[in-house]
Every structure is written in structure tokens, then in C-alpha cells.
Design a protein that fits this description.
The structure holds two protein chains of two kinds.
Chain A: E1 8-10, H1 21-41, H2 47-68, H3 78-100, H4 102-105, H5 107-112, H6 119-145, H7 157-178, H8 185-199, H9 211-217, H10 221-234, H11 240-245, H12 252-272, H13 276-279
Helix pairs in contact in A: 1-6, 2-3, 3-6, 3-7, 3-8, 3-10, 6-7, 7-10, 7-12
Chain B: E1 12-26, H1 33-38, E2 46-60, E3 64-69, H2 75-82, E4 90-96, E5 99-102, H3 115-125, H4 130-135, H5 137-144, H6 159-172, E6 177-181, H7 189-204, E7 208-213, H8 216-222, E8 225-230, E9 233-238, H9 240-258, E10 273-280, E11 287-289, E12 294-302, E13 306-307, E14 309-317, E15 322-329, E16 333-334, E17 339-346, E18 353-364, E19 370-383
Parallel strand pairs in B: 3-7, 3-8, 5-6, 6-7, 11-19
Antiparallel strand pairs in B: 1-2, 1-4, 8-9, 10-12, 12-17, 13-16, 14-15, 14-18, 18-19
Helix pairs in contact in B: 3-6, 5-6, 8-9
Classes of the chains: A mainly alpha, B alpha/beta.
Chain lengths: ~280, ~400
């Protein structure tokens, strides 16, 4: 009892990473591991479902676009392209969709302990990432089964994933921190991400889209990402984002939007984090 | 009350300077989509609720510090600011060492997970590192006496086991400063008293404890110092007894305001009596043998005139249940400075165990105004062979007799 206490330090108040980086990392690991476990051990078939879901969607869409609309026959390796696009986009859609209500859903810890706010949406992204990893294994099995030749650009997959994770995290941060104050956001985001699904080249390749509309769609960073994935992983002959946009300079708006989203995400989250506990 | 740990020279571990906090409460909630559609840009009017206004104080190492006040006085808000859950609008708060908030039992528990996993998560939430949390798990389960149910999912725990587990997890978070909300002690009385025992122990171990409560007897028995908040303002800081008195005054003033005025100009004041002496007969003053009478020896000093006061003793078990009360009324007025003695033997039906003796002094003024003061006089022990059920023994004239069954 005689030992002197630590020096006085300012109480920082709640924040994105309040309590130190190490604590945030440990909590991130714990929360993500728990989410993951709940996901996969809570149901009978656990992780079979997480692979079955995109496969099912894939089956339906494949039937529609090869049997009804005949789009499939005009695109190289259409079935695997469709599968890969669905898997990549599902990651974005699932992570951001769950993230919206994630902070509000953790009300207990947010209001009753000192909890680094950023950990919650990050844990959601991390859990979805486990999913993405499993699904990508299936994608590559299909790739080989459908006779796609492995090329060296497959090694660039981590670059694609990194960009995808970055966009997803930025959006997850924005929606999760704004939701406690704007509860309509949950509904709005459901609609918006469906719109985004059709506005991204998931079902169709971008070269099938006529001029002006294509320029608009190319503003979506996910469009460039999916087209790049197509060129690097499935079809080296595919035009790629630069050719589709009409030169590298034409990609700059999409890049600016992406960087802008990241900046906005950090700004919004830092602004909202201290007040989240009060808004819940 | 025990003497505070040698006061002023101990280092300050919590320092608050001019803490302000306001909440914005929407006056008019925009609920319907139609409303929002017709007035899309109308600004929602907010009412500013100032929960804390310029609160400053110091808490020193090893203190057991009480924060008291009525509901909505800002005491829980203050605790949350100290715990870094809310951010103060203005002012500065500094703390030394590791701070752990105890606002609710079992925060973040997940019924789908095992006790082991929940224990680790909760430990980290309470501010331990992952490694510390894992290491302390065995001790937790031992403390909770749940060794055999380590890998059982929490949803399969009985509610009693759950509380035991949650409490054990909480106790493991051995922070330098413990911030405790009284809602923690809500629940069964046995649990509340177990909490208090642990806080006692922590206090002896030199931890700094801040307790938010409106149970004045707790403040008077446990705290070295207390502070009274009212409408977000610091009204008093100092002796727990004084804080409690002022709290009673505020409380009954509030009740008065809601009643129809009885007579004009009558101000409500607290009873304001001071305990001069409180003991039980016997060598130690706090131990009674089973069956032996409890010999009261209580002396009070009136700090102001008391008109026909009522003295109501409550004897409670360790877990807070009242066993019996004893009421005595004085039909005269006690002048300020005079002394009231309450002494004499009381029948002792109590089974061996620990008890507390509280005294409520009530004054019914002719005007109809009523004031009450609660004092925790002492803890005492009834000594004897344990093993009886219940809390009292009674005299009875019943003997078993064997007879033939009537035909």
C-alpha cells in the first residue's frame, strides 16, 4: 500500500481505439473469434452453409444468364467469372450489411465498459474475411475444373483483396458509426447495396455496357476492382479497367472516390466515436 | 466510521476540474416518414439537459469514496466520465493507474460460449490483458466454486451459477481504481452483501474505490468521504455523515414539494442527531452470546431541537433482511445540545451469525412535515453453535409423545 501510484494521466474519453492499440488488437481477436464460432458452430451444418449460400445464388444466376439471356455464351469462362464476382461482392455486401447495426448491437459493452469502438466494425469485416477465404478456395477449385489456365497474375490476388478489404472497411466504419444516430440507415443501406450489386459488373462484363452509362459505372471503385480481378485471375484477354474507361487517366475519378471514402470513414468515425454511447 | 487512511499526504489518484456534461434530448421526435418527407430540412429541436456543471474534486489513493445524489443528479454520468465511457464537454479529468468500471454484472456475456471463453472476454473488457485474463481463470472458477462447469456453455448455467460466475470474473479484475455503480448490487440481498464484503476487502488492500449509491447506510459504513451531487452540481464534499444528512434533506424537500403545502413558511430540515456512543453490553461491545440479551447502549446528541422524536431500531441479517424492529417514542422536545440515551436489555432470539443495527430517527412536526434520519450504528455477532435454520429461535412448549393410533 505504500507504493506510489502511477502518475496522473488524462482520461481520454471514449474513442475509436481508446485503451491502447494492444488492447484493441486483443479485443478484435476475441470478438472476431467469438463471431466466427457462433457462425460456424451454432448451426448444424455450420460452415457448409457459408459456402452453400454463394453457390446457390451462383446456380440460380448461372441458369438465368446462360439459359434465358444467353449472355454467358459471349463471355469467356462466364460461369467461373460469375462465381468469383459473386464471392467478392458478397464479402462486401455481407460485411457492410452486418456492420450497420454492429455497434448498436454491442450496446452492453459500449455503454458499460471502456471499449475501443473501432474494434466492432473491424471484427465484422474480419469474420466476413474468414468466409471469403473459404469461398475463394471453392472459386479456385472451380477455376481449375473449368479449365482456366493458371497464370502468374494469380499471385496478385492479395493486392485485389487488400483493396477490397480497404473499401469494405471504410464503408463499414461509416455506416456503423452513423447508425446509432440515424436509424433509417439500416433500411437505406439494404436498398443501396442491392443497387450497388446491379451497378457493379457482377452479372455482366463492363464492355457490354454502352458508352455514357459505362462511364458512370466506372466511377464505382468496385467496378474497376472486379474487372481487374477478371483480367488477372480468369481471362488475360479481357480488356481490364483502363481500356474500359478509356485510358488510365479515366480511372482517376474512381480512385479519388475510393481514397475519399477512406478519408471520410476515418473522419466520421473519429467524430462519432466519443458520442456513440450517448446516442444508443 | 473507521478513520480515513492518513488523509492529506496520500497522493491524488483521481483529479477532476470543472467537469461539464450536457445531453441533447430531442424535444420532438420525428417518427413518421411523412413528417420527415414534408419537412425534410426542419431542424429537430433539442432540449439541453446539463447533467454535470463544473464539478471539481480530488480523490486520494486508498480512499473509499461515495458519490450520492437523487436519481438524475448526474452521479452515474460522472462515474461514466471517470471510466472513459462518456466524454466530458469541458473540464479535465485525470486518473492514475488502471481503472476498472463495474457498472453491470456480466457485461458482454454470450450464452452460446463456455464459461472459459466468457471469462477471458470479460476479463479483457474489464481492462486485463489477454494473458492476465487467461492466467486468472483458474482462480475465478475456484472462487465461484464452478471448477466442474468450466467448459459448459453459459446458457446451460442456472441463474445462481451465472451470478456466482459473473461476480468471480468481476473480482478478478484487480484494478488500482474501482468505479462501482450501485445497480451492481441490485438483485438478491445475499449477493449485495457479498459484494460489499469484497469491497471491504479491496479497501483494506489499499485500492481506491468510488461507489455511486443512494443507500446512505452504505455510505456511512463504508466510505471515508462522500460527495453530494444535485442537479449536476457539487453540493457537498466531506464527511459521509454530513453528505448523508444533506441527502436526506434534499430528498424530503423533494417529497414536500409534491405534497400540497401544509402550512406556509415551514422549512424542512434534517433531524440532525449525532451518534455519541453505540455499543452492546459485554466486553467487546459487538459480540453477544446466543440467547443472552442484547444490551443496547446508545447515546445521541441533538444538533437542534427535536420535537417528540421517534427512535426506530432495525436489526438486519448480514444479507440485509430485517429481523425485527424496536420503536420508542419520546413525548417531549429534546433541546439542541441535549443528549438522548437509549439503553437496556433486548430479548435475543437471533441464531448465531452476523447482524447490523440501524437506527432511524423520525420527527413528525405539528405541521405535518416529516423528517427522517437513518444511521447505521454497528455490526455485531451472535456467538454460539451454528447449525440452526432460519434467523430466530423461539421458545416453545412442544414435546413429542408416542400414543397408540386411535381406532
Amino acid at each position: 500500500m505504500s507504493d506510489a501510484p502511477a502518475p496522473l494521466r488524462d482520461v481520454p474519453g471514449p474513442s475509436a481505439l481508446g485503451g491502447g492499440r494492444r488492447r484493441a488488437l486483443e479485443l478484435l481477436y476475441l470478438i472476431a473469434a467469438i463471431d466466427f464460432k457462433k457462425h460456424y458452430f451454432g448451426t448444424v451444418l455450420g460452415y457448409v452453409w457459408s459456402i452453400a449460400r454463394p453457390l446457390l445464388l451462383f446456380g440460380v444466376l448461372l441458369a438465368v444468364f446462360t439459359q434465358v439471356f444467353r449472355l454467358g455464351s459471349e463471355v469467356n469462362h462466364y460461369p467461373v467469372l460469375l462465381l468469383m464476382n459473386i464471392v467478392l461482392f458478397s464479402f462486401f455486401q455481407e460485411a457492410t450489411g452486418v456492420a450497420v447495426t454492429s455497434i448498436a448491437g454491442q450496446e452492453g459493452v459500449v455503454r458499460k465498459t471502456q471499449f475501443p469502438r473501432l474494434v466492432i466494425p473491424l471484427a465484422v469485416v474480419l469474420t466476413s474475411l474468414f468466409n471469403l477465404g473459404l469461398n475463394l478456395v471453392v472459386v479456385f477449385v472451380f477455376l481449375l475444373a473449368f479449365g482456366v489456365t493458371p497464370v502468374w497474375t494469380w499471385l496478385l490476388l492479395p493486392v485485389l483483396l487488400l483493396v477490397l478489404i480497404l473499401i469494405t472497411t471504410a464503408v463499414a466504419m461509416i455506416v456503423s458509426s452513423l447508425y446509432p444516430r440515424f436509424r433509417d440507415l439500416a433500411i437505406i443501406w439494404t436498398v443501396l447495396s442491392t443497387v450497388l450489386f446491379y451497378a457493379s459488373p457482377v452479372l455482366y462484363p463492363l464492355e457490354k455496357v454502352p458508352g455514357t452509362l459505362r462511364d458512370v459505372l466506372m466511377l464505382n471503385p468496385l467496378a474497376s476492382l472486379l474487372e481487374l480481378a477478371r483480367k488477372w485471375i480468369i481471362d488475360p484477354e479481357a480488356p481490364g479497367p483502363a481500356a474500359l474507361a478509356g485510358g488510365y487517366a479515366a480511372l482517376l475519378p474512381a480512385l479519388a472516390i475510393m481514397i475519399g471514402a477512406c478519408v471520410v470513414a476515418v473522419w466520421v468515425f473519429r467524430r462519432e466515436a466519443p458520442r456513440i454511447a450517448e446516442a444508443l | 466510521m473507521a478513520a480515513a487512511p492518513a488523509g492529506a499526504e496520500r497522493p491524488v489518484v483521481i483529479e477532476a476540474r470543472g467537469v461539464d456534461k450536457a445531453f441533447r434530448i430531442p424535444e420532438h421526435r420525428v417518427d413518421s416518414l411523412r413528417e420527415r418527407a414534408t419537412h425534410p430540412f426542419r431542424r429537430i429541436a433539442y432540449r439541453e439537459h446539463r447533467a454535470l456543471r463544473g464539478v471539481s474534486f480530488d480523490i486520494r489513493q486508498g480512499e473509499f469514496f461515495g458519490i450520492v445524489g437523487r436519481n438524475g443528479s448526474g452521479k452515474s454520468t460522472l462515474l461514466k466520465i471517470l471510466a472513459s465511457i462518456y466524454r466530458a464537454d469541458a473540464g479535465r479529468v485525470r486518473t492514475a493507474g488502471r481503472v476498472a468500471p463495474f457498472i453491470e454484472l456480466g457485461v458482454g456475456f454470450n450464452p452460446e460460449l463456455t464459461a472459459r471463453e466468457n471469462g477471458v472476454l470479460n476479463g479483457v473488457l474489464m481492462g486485463l490483458s489477454l494473458r492476465q485474463a487467461r492466467r486468472s481463470l483458474d482462480a475465478v472458477m475456484e472462487f465461484a466454486e464452478l471448477d466442474d462447469f468450466f467448459d459448459l456453455e453459459l446458457k446451460n448455467y442456472s441463474s445462481g451459477m451465472l451470478v456466482r460466475f459473473a461476480f468471480a470474473v468481476m473480482v478478478q479484475a484487480d484494478a488500482d481504481i474501482m468505479l462501482i455503480d450501485e445497480v451492481l448490487a441490485v438483485g438478491d440481498a445475499a449477493f449485495a452483501s457479498k459484494c460489499m464484503d469484497v469491497f471491504h476487502e479491496k479497501r483494506r488492500a489499499g485500492k481506491t474505490i468510488v461507489l455511486v449509491t443512494h443507500d446512505m447506510t452504505t455510505v456511512q459504513t463504508l466510505c471515508h468521504r462522500a460527495m453530494l451531487l444535485h442537479d449536476g452540481e457539487l453540493r457537498y464534499i466531506g464527511e459521509p455523515e454530513d453528505a448523508a444528512l444533506r441527502y436526506y434533506r434534499l430528498n424530503f424537500a423533494h417529497v414536500e414539494a409534491q405534497l400540497p403545502p401544509v402550512s406556509a413558511g415551514e422549512k424542512v430540515v434534517d433531524v440532525n442527531a449525532r451518534v455519541l456512543r453505540a455499543a452492546l453490553g459485554g466486553a467487546r461491545g459487538d459480540v453477544v452470546d446466543r440467547g443472552e440479551p442484547i444490551v443496547l447502549d446508545v447515546a445521541l446528541e441533538a444538533a437542534r431541537d427535536l420535537a417528540r422524536p421517534t427512535f426506530n431500531f432495525h436489526v438486519r441479517t448480514e444479507d440485509g433482511r430485517a429481523v425485527f424492529e424496536l420503536m420508542r417514542k419520546l413525548e417531549v422536545t429534546v433541546a439542541a445540545g441535549q443528549c438522548v440515551e437509549l439503553a437496556g436489555p433486548v430479548d435475543n432470539p437471533l441464531v448465531p451469525g452476523r447482524y447490523t443495527l440501524d437506527l432511524y430517527i423520525r420527527e413528525d412536526a405539528d405541521t405535518g412535515a416529516m423528517t427522517v434520519q437513518g444511521l447505521r450504528l454497528l455490526h455485531f455477532q451472535v456467538r454460539g453453535a451454528a447449525g440452526s435454520h432460519g434467523v430466530v429461535t423461539v421458545a416453545a412448549d412442544v414435546e413429542p409423545v408416542v400414543r397408540e393410533r386411535p381406532a
